[in-house]
Each structure stands twice: as structure tokens, then as C-alpha cells.
Write a structure and sequence with these properties.
single chain; about 800 residues; alpha/beta; eight-stranded mixed beta sheet; 30 strands; elongated
Length: about 800
């Protein structure tokens, strides 16, 4: 079982997404609009033309677009280079050479890159400008290649002079990105093979993520609908072939072929050329050459494009250069048009047993058009096969979702926690002091390869902080490439193996895993295994047996070490001695605070402490929401507070040991409180009379106060983090505890905290936080914060 995590994604390019016209923008919207709620995505782009303004808007539930205009000087310098190349478009190819003129774009991109978990470069253009801000390898860096740009730009620009220099620049930056990224997304198998051949990139690093189409937005057109569409365009019964494309050299070559070759040879067919490619031609040229069967539509709105698709009888794609896949092909296929294409135009599109595309070379194109128009059965077969194929294989909805799963998987494999997670703080114990050593100890013995690990713990839906901790530990180990099997300590949790390990001899069941796993990790809380005093004898003996048989392959993560009394009745002293013996025999034990480690070692006389280690509480935690404070408050519908209200938060399971009443009492004693509110949010973990009475007492204390709200509710992980994000101060007024997951999550969101001096809480905070010992000190701290005296 893995805990849901949130991974922040930034996608970078130098064009806008909206409106999604042209293959590049359509791919951006298609790929990143619906990768899943765990992958909130920010797109940083610009405009490759002058006169636009800054724009920040949302394109889908999980995709936002930020466009920062390039500077005037950027366009001036680009125009100088362009004039030396006969007007060829190079604003993308030389973007890294001129990007320093657009500092606002670069700084915004760097800022987003630095705070992201996954960084995706759509095209290689922005990579050189922000590469120094990457936090590799803690981030997943992805190259979304829409073409093999080095090859394409060489074919477009290579002139032996400046064009060659720019093409070489493209080859250089694409080569660097390919070798420095963790994953390459290729549009087709052909591109995948080119990356391997040209740049020596291993196939294992390249995933094919094809282009696609929003199938729900392009209807399959019937015969009657086609007649209506033709009537709108005043086409009569004349057959029409459609071609679409942006102002991009391979598209310009295709349009020129239509005008020069196809239209004169087939005068009884209309040829509609649609999109930005029309800017390279004029109706005056057509009239001068007496070409009357070519329609230059120019840029089309989405509704206009759909009408032209509906009015067409077939689609053509005579491409002779370029790489990647042509997104226009999927529009044609989704509309149910029989498609005629050159092999390059159909690159990367799956061909089934029944043909979906009529593929022919330049010399066969005219015959191909005639065959499709004359053979109605063949045309119908192409039409139906094409529509079926895009629905099954090339739907953007499916492609985006699948990409999200791929990125999550790769990120978890990439993430490295070990160096920050585990510090061995002691190997020598002397006079109740532990001397810190420089070496580190890993939770799992490193062997350089994947291991089979069994983790014994509570798991959701169990209402238990250790259950959430266990799920995140599983996610961490999975990210290291290990094979993890979850084993629950009771029968209520969602785990791969459910056991009842509580009491008596029951933990003996763990022996069955000795020869099935490489490592056994136990999230240990005494209450999981010792249900009564009489269990102390037999259960300790069972653990001693486990330690002996699993020796070297078992780790204990201690959650709240229980220090049994040393003195008292004979039976009490026997219990203590057995507990001490178990601690002495323990293999490798991790504690969350140094205080807990020292006290446990001192209490049980553990002279040999080279098996005791510190495991930072929450170092492997991940945020479950990325909403900032104001958005979190809106999401939680905190109607009682104003925007500038100072929010104090007590959160978690409600019981006397948590001490939430201490904070409620402070707020009840304070007067003249302005723009301040205390929220106590949580539920009773296990319904008992004592805890129910405590909850009702809290509600009574808060009743009638306009500054205190008690919310009794079990919180999901996302809701829990929303509350923390919405707060200003997180208060942990605990009466007894060693370490706190609440405190660890608060620090994850960089919240200031007020904590009691018990256990090791003071080890989890920073100099910006507050520690109190008595209720008077707590009141003084809160008063100073509210009245801005501290």
C-alpha cells in the first residue's frame, strides 16, 4: 500500500498553449491537461510574436498556464539574425542565445524549476537558460521531444554559414539535454531509434508517448451532416480534400505540392488548405496562375475547423520532411475522413491489419486520391478504421492519464532519500551521553540491487498516525526500487498480508517470512504486540527468537519507547528484566529523537549502542496539498475568519495526553483578541468513555466563544495538510510524547510552531519556534504573538 503523494510539475517552452493551434500547442494541452490530481502542473511559456501581455490562467483542473512576453530587445536581436537567413524562422532555434534579453521570463522559469519535483522541457530551447537551477537528482528531469530537433533544424537551416551555426547550436543543446535528463518522451518509434543512433541514448531511457486528439471534441460525421456542412461553405456536391498546418517549413512544402501538382491535375476536386501555412501563399498568386480549386482559409476558429472537417470527403498529408508525428492526422482520423499520406506524414501511427491510412509516395498521390473517391467501400473502411484507432490508441484523455502514471513511477524510482533520512548519531554510550559519529546507517542494508522487504505496521484505514507513517515508508522504499510487501499487525488494515500479531505467541507468525524476504522492518509500538501484562513473558521470548533467526535482516523503528518500572513487586521486576533482555538483543533499532534514544538506552542499561540509530521523524514525508494559505482557507470554507486573521491550530487525535484543553483555556482567559482564531480539529482515535468525555469537555469550554472552533472529524491526508497550510501557528501542547508527526508535517509547510518541552519535541523545531514548560509560559507566548509583543 502506498500513500498518495503530490508531485509538483513544471513544463517549459517558449510558445503559448492557448489557443491550442498547431501541433506543438495541441501536444502541450493534450499531454498535460489531465495527468492526475497528484501531478498539479504549471506551464511556463511565452509568445513568439510581439505585442502580447503577461497571462496567468487555468486550462484544466490540474494545468495552469503562465505566459511571460519576451522583451522588445529580444525581438530586435532575433530580427537581425533572421535577416541574415533570408527571413527563416529562428526565434526558437536561437532562443538560448537570446534569452538573456528576456530576464523576466528566465527568472520566472528558474523560480518554478527550483520548487518543482518534476521538470519537463517541451523542446530543448529553455534548458540551457535554467539548467543551473535544477536540483538533480532529487528532481525528475524529462525531455518531451516533439521532433529530433537537431536533425530537423539541420535540414531546415544548414547553409554553410550562420544557418549551420544555429543548427549546430540546436544539436549541442539537444544532445546535452538528452544525456542529462532522466527520461525522453518520443512521438514515434522512428524518433526513438534516431535518438539512439544519433545521440547514443539507450532505448531504456526513451518512452514512446504519441500525439493524439480530443476525440470527444471532433464528431464522426455522417452523410447527412456532411451535406449540411458543404452547404454552409457553398461547395455544392464537389468533393473536397483538406490539408491543415502551421507556418512550418515541412507544411509549407506540402502546401506548395498541393498548389503546384495536385490542384492542376485534379481540377474537379476542391483543395482546402487551412491554418497558419496559408500566410505563405496568396489568392493573388492563385488567380494569376488560374488555379480556382484551392481554398486558402487562413487561421480557423475551432468551430470553423470542425465545419471544414465535416465538409471534406478526404484528408491529405503530403509531408516530405520533418520528424515526430503529425497531430493533424489525428484530427482527420477522428473526423472519420479517409486519409492519404506519404510515409513521413504517417510516421509513428500504428497500422492495423485493416488499413487505416492510404500511404503512397509523391508520384502515387494523384492515383491515391482518385482511388479513395471512386472506391466507396475502400473509403468507408479507411474511415471507420481510422476513427476506431484514435479512440483506442490516440485519445488525449488516455494518453495524458497514462503519462501521469509513467511520471509518478519514474519519480518514485528517482527520488533519493537515504542520505537525508538516516543518521547514526551514536556508537558509544558513556555517562548517559552519546557521542555523535560521522558515519551513517541505512534503514535497509545497501546491496546495490532491489530487495524483497516486508514491512510490519498498521495501515489505513486504521485511524492511527503510525498507519500513515507506514504508508509513506512503503512509498519511500518503493522509490528506491525495492519490492515491498505490507504486513498488518491486525486484521482491519489494508495490507498485502493481514495477521493478528497482538498478544502471546502471535508474533511467531513472522517467522514464516524469514526465507521469503531480504529485510524485515517492524514499525514497533508496544501496544501492537503486548495486549496485557501476562503477554510480557511469552511475547518477549518470541521476539528474542525472531531476532535470533532474522539476525542481520531485521530493523525496528521505535514509535514511543515504553519505559517499564524497574522496581516494585517481583513480577514487575521480572517484566522489566525481560524487556531489558529484549532491548539488549535487539538488532538494529531506529528512534525519532535523540532524547528518546538516550532515555531508552539509559533506562535499560544498553552499553553497546552501535545498533541504535536516529531516524529523522518525517524526513521522507511528502505534501498532500500544494495549496497556499489563502487557497487552503477557501478550500476549507473558513467562513468565520477574515483574510488577515491569525489562525492557531491544534490538530490530530483528541485525547487528554494531547493537551488541547491547555490552549483552549488560554484563549478563554485572553481578552481583546482581534483577528485571531483557534481551531481544534480532529477525532477520537478509539472511542472510550474517557476520550469521549474529554472531547465533550473541549466543546463545552469552546461553547459561546467567537474565537474558538472545535471540529470533530477524522481527516484524510489531504484535509490534514489543508488545515496545516491554512494556519499561521501549529500548537502541540502535548503532556506526554517522544516525537510528533503533526510537528513534522507542520515543518514540511514551514509553519511556526508552539510546542511543549516534553520528550524530543524541541529537537523537531527551529529557532523561529517556541517551547513552553508550563501553562503560564504557553499563555505568555500566545499573548505576545497576538498582541505583537514578540
Amino acid at each position: 500500500m502506498t500513500q498518495k503523494q503530490i508531485f509538483r510539475v513544471t513544463v517549459l517552452d517558449m510558445q503559448p498553449i492557448d489557443p491550442p493551434i498547431g501541433g506543438g500547442r495541441l501536444r502541450l494541452l493534450g499531454l498535460y491537461h489531465g495527468m492526475g490530481e497528484c501531478l498539479p502542473t504549471t506551464y511556463i511559456g511565452s509568445y513568439d510574436w510581439e505585442g502580447e501581455k503577461y497571462r496567468h490562467h487555468r486550462l484544466s483542473k490540474t494545468l495552469e498556464e503562465i505566459d511571460i512576453p519576451l522583451s522588445e530587445q529580444h525581438f530586435v536581436e532575433c530580427a537581425k539574425l533572421q535577416s541574415r537567413l533570408g527571413g527563416k524562422t529562428i526565434i526558437d532555434s536561437c532562443f538560448n542565445l537570446l534569452g538573456h534579453h528576456s530576464s523576466e521570463f528566465v527568472e520566472t522559469a528558474k523560480s518554478k524549476v527550483a520548487e518543482s519535483d518534476i521538470v519537463i522541457f517541451s523542446h530543448p530551447w529553455v534548458y540551457p537558460l535554467v539548467k543551473d537551477s535544477l536540483r538533480h537528482p532529487s528532481q525528475l528531469v524529462v525531455y518531451d521531444s516533439q521532433n529530433v530537433e537537431g536533425l530537423l533544424r539541420t535540414s531546415l537551416l544548414d547553409d554553410g554559414g550562420l544557418g549551420t551555426e544555429i543548427a549546430q547550436n540546436v544539436v549541442s543543446i539537444e544532445y546535452a539535454l538528452c544525456h542529462n535528463c532522466d527520461l525522453i518522451l518520443a512521438c514515434s518509434q522512428e524518433d526513438r531509434e534516431l535518438f539512439n543512433k544519433l545521440y547514443n541514448i539507450p532505448f531504456s531511457k526513451i518512452a514512446i508517448v504519441p500525439n493524439g486528439v480530443f476525440t470527444d471534441k471532433i464528431p464522426y460525421v455522417s452523410g447527412s451532416q456532411k451535406k449540411i456542412a458543404k452547404k454552409k461553405l457553398n461547395l455544392g456536391d464537389t468533393p473536397m480534400a483538406i490539408f491543415m498546418g502551421s507556418s512550418y517549413l515541412p507544411n509549407i512544402e506540402a502546401a506548395r505540392f498541393i498548389i503546384d501538382e495536385l490542384a492542376p491535375a485534379l481540377p474537379n476536386i476542391h483543395f482546402a488548405i487551412c491554418g497558419g501555412v496559408c500566410d505563405q501563399f496568396s489568392n493573388g498568386e492563385l488567380q494569376q496562375r488560374n488555379i480556382t480549386n484551392v481554398i486558402l482559409t487562413g487561421f480557423l476558429k475551432e468551430s470553423e475547423k470542425l465545419n471544414y472537417l465535416a465538409a471534406s470527403d478526404l484528408a491529405i498529408n503530403p509531408m516530405f520532411s520533418g520528424s515526430g508525428t503529425n497531430i493533424k492526422m489525428f484530427d482527420f482520423m477522428a473526423a472519420g475522413l479517409p486519409v492519404i499520406s506519404t510515409p513521413i506524414g504517417a510516421r509513428g501511427i500504428l497500422q492495423l491489419k485493416n488499413p487505416t491510412i492510404h500511404i503512397c509516395n509523391e508520384n502515387e498521390f494523384i492515383n491515391g486520391i482518385q482511388k479513395v473517391l471512386q472506391d466507396h467501400d475502400y473509403a468507408k473502411s479507411l474511415s471507420q478504421s481510422a476513427r476506431n484507432l484514435v479512440e483506442k490508441k490516440y485519445s488525449w484523455e488516455k494518453i495524458s492519464s497514462n503519462l501521469g502514471m509513467l511520471l509518478c513511477k519514474k519519480y518514485l524510482q528517482q527520488k533519493k532519500y537515504i542520505s537525508s533520512l538516516h543518521q547514526n548519531v551514536n556508537n558509544q554510550y558513556n555517562s548517559h551521553q552519546l557521542n555523535e559519529l560521522s558515519n551513517q546507517e541505512n534503514l535497509v542494508e545497501s546491496s546495490g540491487k532491489s530487495q524483497k522487504i516486508y514491512i510490519v505496521s498498521t495501515y489505513p484505514p486504521e485511524h492511527c498516525g503510525i498507519a500513515s507513517y507506514g504508508s509513506q515508508l512503503v512509498a519511500y522504499l518503493v522509490s528506491q526500487g525495492h519490492q515491498v510487501t505490507t504486513v498488518s499487525v491486525n486484521l482491519q488494515a489494508n495490507a498485502d498480508i493481514k495477521l493478528n500479531l497482538g498478544g502471546g505467541i502471535n508474533p511467531i507468525y513472522l517467522l514464516f517470512f524469514r526465507w521469503k524476504c531480504d529485510q524485515l522492518i517492524i514499525n514497533y509500538h508496544r501496544s501492537f504486540f503486548f495486549k496485557s501484562n501476562r503477554d510480557t513473558i511469552i511475547t518477549n521470548i518470541v521476539f528474542l527468537l525472531l531476532y535470533l533467526i532474522f539476525w542481520g535482516k531485521i530493523s525496528i523503528i521505535c514509535h514511543e519507547a515504553e519505559l517499564l518500572p524497574k522496581k516494585g513487586l517481583l513480577i514487575k521486576r521480572l517484566y522489566f528484566l525481560l524487556e531489558k533482555l529484549r532491548w539488549l538483543a535487539s538488532p538494529k533499532v531506529f528512534f525519532h529523537t535523540k532524547s528518546e534514544l538516550i532515555d531508552c538506552a539509559s533506562h535499560y542499561g544498553l552499553q553497546e549502542t552501535n545498533r541504535l540509530f536516529l531516524l529523522g521523524h518525517g524526513n521522507h514525508f511528502q505534501k498532500h496539498t500544494l495549496l497556499e494559505q489563502s487557497s487552503a482557507r477557501t478550500s476549507l470554507q473558513l467562513s468565520k475568519i477574515k483574510e488577515n486573521t491569525l489562525v492557531f491550530l491544534c490538530i490530530g487525535f483528541v485525547q487528554h495526553s494531547k493537551g488541547f484543553d491547555r490552549v483552549v483555556d488560554v484563549f478563554n482567559r485572553l481578552s481583546l483578541i482581534k483577528n485571531t482564531h483557534l481551531y481544534v480539529v480532529g477525532s477520537i482515535r478509539v472511542e472510550t468513555e474517557a476520550d469521549r468525555n474529554y472531547m465533550e469537555t473541549l466543546k463545552e469550554k469552546a461553547h459561546g466563544s467567537e474565537y474558538i472552533t472545535i471540529i470533530e472529524k477524522f481527516l484524510s491526508d489531504e484535509e490534514f495538510d489543508l488545515w496545516i497550510s491554512a494556519s499561521d501557528y501549529v500548537v502541540c501542547p502535548y503532556r506526554i510524547i517522544w516525537s510528533s508527526s503533526v510537528l513534522a508535517r507542520a515543518k514540511l509547510y514551514q509553519k511556526r510552531c508552539i510546542v511543549s518541552s516534553v520528550g524530543g519535541l524541541a529537537e523537531q523545531i527551529t529557532d523561529q519556534d517556541f517551547v513552553f514548560g508550563t501553562d503560564i509560559e504557553l499563555e505568555s507566548i500566545i499573548s505576545k504573538i497576538i498582541y505583537k509583543l514578540g
